[in-house]
Amino acid sequence: MFNDIGPLELVTLVVLAVLVFGPDKLPKLIQDVTRTIRKIREFSESAKQDIRSELGPEFKDFEFEDLNPKTFIRKQLDNDELGLKEIRNGFDLKKEMAEVTDAVHGRDSDSSSSSSSSSSSSGGSGGRIDMTKKDDDGKDDRPIFDADAT
């Protein structure tokens, strides 16, 4: 619960509590707070047991932590009944992004991948496109308007 509180912060909280509540009332306050926390925990455990008993025997191994979306997704990815690892491993993000970039620039994905591999093997720009380059006839290759802005 308090995993992220450092020693300096803990000392600051204790000093602040002593200043606000006073040294004579602080022990009684700590007892009241711990008693309240204990009652809340007992109440939540009894509520969990009631829910488990109402759900029936098929949900006897049901954990309420599974209702957290992150825990549920992590458990499903580890389970792999749906074949999600195969889908995740079969997806190549760099290849997909290169295809999208080629489609936006209006090039064939086959010719660009072979030209980028030949330029990268010959010490080229590493697959980058130089937008300041002009064609042999001196005309600018870029459109006269920004396609993203329209």
Characterise this structure.
It comes from Streptomyces justiciae. InterPro entries: TatA/B/E, TatB. Residues 100-110, 130-150 have a biased composition (Basic and acidic residues). This is Sec-independent protein translocase protein TatB. The structure is a single chain. By secondary structure, this protein is mostly helical. It has a domain at 7-60. It is 59% helix and 0% strand. It contains 6 helices and no strands. The relative contact order is 0.03.
Which stretches of 5+ consecutive residues score pLDDT under 50? 111-125
Q: What gross morphology would you assign?
A: flat
Total helices: the number is 6
- Portion in beta strands: under 5%
**Global structural class:** mainly alpha
Helix content: 55-70%
Number of strands: 0
> Which sequence of SSEs, written as H and E, runs from N to C?
HHHHHH
What kind of sheet is the major sheet?
none
Average pLDDT across residues? 75
Q: What is the radius of gyration?
A: 31 Å
The rounded distance between the terminal residues' Cα atoms is 51 Å
Explain briefly what this protein structure is.
Belongs to the TatB family. Its main location: membrane. With 150 residues, the protein is mainly alpha-helical.
Topology, element by element:
Blueprint: H1 7-21, H2 26-55, H3 69-79, H4 84-90, H5 93-105, H6 109-121
